[in-house]
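haha ok so turns out i had the wrong file open the whole time. this is the CORRECT one, sorry everyone. sequence first:
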Amino acid sequence: MKMKMLTLDNTAAGDITLNDAVFKIDVRPDIMARVVDWQLAKRRSGTHKVKERGEVNGSTRKIVRQKGSGGARHSTRKVSLFRGGGVTFGPLPRDHGYDLPKKVRALALRSALSMKLADGALMIIADETLATPKTADLKKKLQDLKINDALIVSGKEINDNFSKALNNIPKIDGLCYQGANVYDILRRKKLVLTKEAVELLEARLA
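then structure:
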């Protein structure tokens, strides 16, 4: 499929042919949802922690005699029944990540790219080279291109001036093609790819 390319200055830069096996497949929302869940699970720190009975400070003296009190039999005040006692079966530090097949992840990424193209939310630019690292200049260029909520994916490396100028613009994210992922693509309204990013993504996913 052919698509028009633009420059950052909003001028025509020729056409580019997109691989239908990457950009025009049947969208699979179920697969994308699985991958988003997997990504968010991997991001969790897993540092939540409670004190168990053996970790609570306190005396281990038996608080009431075993028989004759007319009440329940208790050992120490560190048990979970009492205020300030340990927590039973509470959360402990752990890794929330799990494995997901590479084929599933690749299919989800192809689905996300295809969905953006089908929704008219995909834009191809020749490159992201910027002469100076000025946020105001880049912001003006993006406004001319009607880009106000987007993920911009470059090739192997992001242009240094472009990266610096992009840092201060809200709702605009920048990534190298290696970091292109389903979650970041879906969380922004528009996806902007450089010509190099298209070629590298097609080589990776086709």
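The chain has seven helices and six strands.
again sry for the mixup
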